[in-house]
Specification:
Helix content: 10-25%
Oligomer: single chain
Number of helices: 4
Number of strands: 17
Shape: globular
Largest sheet: 17 strands, mixed
Length: 326
């Protein structure tokens, strides 16, 4: 039998990604064991190194197999138990209970808002006026590092004695309120946590979300304007309620699932990737397929046009799921 090495890595990845959920259902693996599969990530570096060392030999494919097997185990763990269990090894499930001093400010001009949270939960809402507000709890009441000016507000997790990174950190909880008056560029980076973002009534420029090993919902349904969106999901789940105004952008899912909810009457044009381990549930929603593009008939003449590049790598996109995008 001749084995095509070009497909060997994909085969190992798919076998392990499917075998892990089967092992969990059969009772051979516990949720705690699955939650620790992320700790295998150094094997990716080892596999790359092996590939470099043996690249010119008959065993050069071994490095690629190590990388494929590691990704297969990690993705299988994510698919079998969900984001919250898979990320327990990254982020402690113990939440800090000490309230930190609230911070407030006023925005008078167009502003960039940047939130960077490592290990925790963040809730973002919008209130009338031009004032912003941050409150919440953490382990010792120190609160996040906040810098602000007329043109920028940045809220970032502090470096603490929990180690060189956010691994095994105590969870923080943030409640962030933003104003609806000035135009905002909004950016959220969340590592190992959950986010609920409701930007109703806000006037938005660029909206960016980077989610690593977590879950989030982003509600843009009633936003007054959205200049563009750029979302990246790395291991987790993301629900996006699209705005009832024209916009463009991209959403990328790497080892995760994305739910898209479109407002009634909005015309969609969704471009998909070519990855063989990606799925797009766009059929049956009134869209017409042309190669890798799905469009609402009459898109170019519609009052509200939303055009997105939606690309999945070991992930999935679902349009207007029965359970919604919350």
């Amino acid at each position: 039998m001749h084995v095509r090495r070009g497909f060997l890595g994909w085969g190992v990845f798919l076998i392990l990604a499917g075998a892990v959920p089967l092992a969990v259902r059969a009772g051979y693996l516990t949720s705690d064991q699955i939650g620790r599969l992320w700790t295998l990530w150094p094997l990716i570096l080892i596999g790359i190194g092996v590939g470099l060392v043996l690249g010119r030999t008959h065993f050069g494919f071994v490095g690629g197999l190590i990388v494929a097997a590691t990704f297969g185990l990690m993705v299988g763990g994510l698919l079998s138990t969900g984001v919250s269990t898979f990320s327990t090894g990254i982020c402690s499930q113990t939440s800090g209970s000490t309230a930190f001093p609230a911070r407030d400010g006023v925005l008078s001009v167009a502003t960039s808002v940047e939130l960077e949270l490592d290990c925790g939960t963040v809730t973002v809402g919008v209130a009338p006026g031009n004032a912003w507000h941050v409150e919440g709890q953490d382990a010792n009441g120190s609160g996040p590092a906040i810098t602000s000016s007329d043109g920028q507000v940045r809220v970032k997790s502090r470096d603490t004695d929990r180690g060189p990174s956010w691994v095994f950190g105590t969870r923080e909880t943030w409640q962030v309120t933003l104003p609806d008056a000035p135009r905002l560029d909004f950016h959220l980076r969340l590592n190992a946590g959950e986010a609920t973002v409701d930007l109703s009534r806000a006037t938005l420029g660029a909206v960016g979300v980077q989610l690593n090993a977590g879950s989030a919902t982003v509600d843009l349904t009633s936003a007054a304007a959205v200049g563009g969106i750029d979302f990246q999901l790395n291991a987790g789940s993301l629900g996006v309620s699209l705005p009832n105004v024209s916009t463009t952008g991209s959403i990328e899912a790497n080892a995760g699932s994305v739910r898209l909810c479109a407002p009634p009457g909005a015309a969609l044009r969704l471009h998909t990737g070519q990855n063989i381990i990606a799925s797009y549930d766009y059929a049956g929603h009134g869209l017409v397929q042309d190669g890798s593009t799905w469009s609402t008939p009459g898109f170019d003449g519609a009052a509200v046009r939303i055009e997105l590049r939606t690309e999945a790598n070991a992930g999935s996109f679902t349009l207007d799921p029965e359970g919604g995008c919350d």
